[in-house]
Write a structure and sequence with these properties.
Number of helices: 4
Structural class: mainly beta
CATH topology of the largest domain: Jelly Rolls
Strand content: 35-45%
Radius of gyration: 47 Å
Number of strands: 43
Largest sheet: 8 strands, mixed
Protein name: DUF4493 domain-containing protein
Pfam families: DUF4493
Organism: Bacteroides stercoris
Shape: rod-shaped
CATH architecture of the largest domain: Sandwich
Oligomer: single chain
Low-confidence stretches: 1-30, 48-55, 369-373, 544-550
């Protein structure tokens, strides 16, 4: 801020005059004469020595707004003292003085103008014509403190003092003070950094009709916002690359103060700005909207960076059929003909994959008789991951089961007790899977990952679990970049028994070396358990009329999953 004072020209204002009246004195007015005011010239011009000029913020009065005063100079008696239009006045013969004024010679927002004639004489039965030249008779103080400086103040005031009294005065307006005195102007207040600030300027022996303009222009710092990385723009938040000393383009002595108080913010409309927070050393703007375009800027008080940047948020993709309400597809593998034959289906869930093609493999080529295409077909083949109406919220959920299958052909009629015995003695068990990716039934292997170009912060789901003794289910998720390198993963969640549906959230931990990598693929994986020991499993009674479980099954751990949701808020 510069403390120098500059003299500025005032815009000349010329307003108002009155014409004389032609009154004839009558003989009855013996010993009296008439004062006639011929014209009144009013000037509110204020001079200065500098080449700049400031427009006046007041209007000069008209002649009818002046106060006129006539004084008998021999007796000192004021014979006339009134405001308003004045053209002539009948006076006793004698010696007088005519004066005109506007306002008072005090500090204030009203200017003081004054004019006085020389003394004149009134003689009997004559008219005496006089003219007045009314001029500005005070000094003008005009604060012109720049708006972009005042914006740095939460509260402020400008005051002027003549040593005995103090008045608050407006900015960018004329304020009138008696000439020939000394004045002190003070700008004080609390800035946006909550610091109390005060600056004063001295005016010495101010002159009549001079305007003293306080040109307090800010000498403020300027700075730039560093280039923000595309990989730091997520779905609902942005990691900010903060400024350093290299971003200061002026006032390097203020670097430490600016960097300590800089604000980073984003706006979708240029009006409403969301400020960044500091979270464990990271500068984050959160609470943004996926797919929206935002302007990012840095700000020190009201000083805004000389550049800003436009970014577009990532989308917030959800997994297809995460609530499992889509209709399952089913492929008929075999059977379904004759009174003892039941159809064998492989079940498919849109958006997901399973191990079902493996656990139904072989049923395609089964023939009648003792091959097991009859009512005992499910002792040899069955889909381990199927829909269930036992849901936490909606109509459907997914049941993922560990199942054991008899390895040999089924012949004859077995009692239900024998189903378990034969399977235990000569069977193979498979854990049930539900995942995003592809499955090879011939090698019984899976390839994880489907296309997904958003980076979630966590995954949540509802689960219910009935394990065999000491078994635990498995759930996890991973995110990969375009090179299929893993950039984030959750913990491997394992749970023992859970009788009621329970909400579970797994947080994604992003690898530090891949924090800015964009997502290209995602996998979500659920497994019914690890224990495939058939002796730990049990026979579950089936119903001949039900589908897909028309017959008994040998069942291990059963995991039920519902409402899989990807979360994108900053955590």
């Amino acid at each position: 801020m510069r403390n120098g004072m500059r003299y500025i020209f005032i815009l000349c204002l010329f307003l108002g005059f009155t014409s004389c009246q032609e009154d004839v004195l009558q003989p009855s007015y013996k010993g009296k004469g008439r004062l006639v005011l011929k014209d009144v010239d009013i000037s509110a011009e204020a001079s200065a020595e500098t080449v700049t000029r400031a427009t006046s913020t007041f209007t000069a009065p008209t002649a009818s707004e002046l106060t006129y005063k006539v004084t008998d100079t021999q007796t000192g008696e004021v014979v006339y003292n009134q405001p308003g239009e004045f053209t002539s006045l009948v006076l006793d013969e004698g010696f007088y003085r005519l004066e005109a004024s506007y306002g008072t010679e005090n500090m204030g927002i009203v200017p003081y103008l004054y004019a006085a004639t020389e003394e004149f004489q009134i003689t009997t039965a004559t008219e005496t014509a006089k003219s007045l030249s009314v001029k500005l008779s005070c000094a003008i103080v005009h604060p012109a403190i720049a708006d972009n400086l005042l914006e740095h103040y939460d509260t402020y005031k400008i005051e002027i003092s003549d040593g005995t009294s103090i008045q608050e005065i407006p900015n960018n307006a004329d304020f009138f003070v008696p000439a020939g005195k000394d004045y002190t102007l003070t700008l004080s207040g609390t800035n946006t950094l909550n610091e109390a600030k005060s600056n004063s300027w001295e005016l010495k022996d101010v002159l009549v009709a001079n305007r003293y303009t306080l040109n307090c222009n800010p000498d403020l710092p300027s700075f730039t916002l560093p280039e923000q990385m595309e990989g730091d723009v997520w779905s609902t938040f942005i990691y900010i690359t903060p400024m350093t000393a290299a971003n200061m383009s002026s006032k390097p002595e203020m670097t430490e103060k600016v960097l300590a108080n800089i604000v980073y913010e984003a706006s979708a409309d240029g009006i409403n700005w969301i400020q960044a927070i500091n979270d464990n050393g990271k500068t984050v703007i959160k609470g943004l909207v996926a797919n929206n375009r935002y302007t990012i800027r840095s700000r020190f008080g009201s000083i805004i960076c000389t550049n800003s940047q436009q970014v577009t948020m990532e989308s917030a993709e959800q997994l297809e059929n995460g609530n499992f309400e889509s209709v399952w597809n089913k492929k008929k593998i075999n059977g379904g003909n004759g009174s003892w034959s039941r159809p064998l289906y492989c079940y498919y869930l849109p958006g997901w994959n399973t191990r079902n093609e493996r656990t139904t493999k072989g049923g395609e080529n089964a023939t009648g008789g003792g091959t097991g295409v009859g009512y005992g077909v499910w002792w040899r083949w069955c889909s381990g991951t199927v829909p269930t109406a036992d849901s936490s919220k909606d109509a459907n959920a997914v049941e993922i089961s560990t199942l054991a299958f008899y390895n040999k052909k089924v012949s004859g009629l077995w009692s239900r007790d024998e189903v378990y015995t034969y399977t235990r003695d000569n069977g193979t068990a498979y854990a049930g899977y539900l995942f995003t990716g592809t499955f090879d039934k011939n090698t019984d292997t899976y390839t994880l990952g489907i296309q997904h170009e958003s980076r979630p912060t966590s995954i949540s789901f509802d689960y219910k679990y009935s394990p065999v003794i000491n078994d635990k289910c498995l759930a996890y998720a991973k995110v990969y970049n375009a090179d299929k390198k893993e950039i984030a993963s959750t913990i491997e969640f394992n749970s023992s028994g859970q009788e009621e549906y329970t909400a579970q959230t797994l947080k994604f931990e992003y690898n530090k070396e891949h924090m800015q990598s964009k997502a290209k693929y995602i996998t979500v994986f659920f497994q019914s358990g690890y224990d495939t020991t058939i002796s730990n499993m049990h026979r579950e009674n089936g119903d001949y009329g039900s589908s897909p479980f028309g017959e008994d099954r040998v069942v291990g751990s059963v995991l039920k999953i519902d409402n899989v949701v990807l979360n994108y808020d900053y955590e």
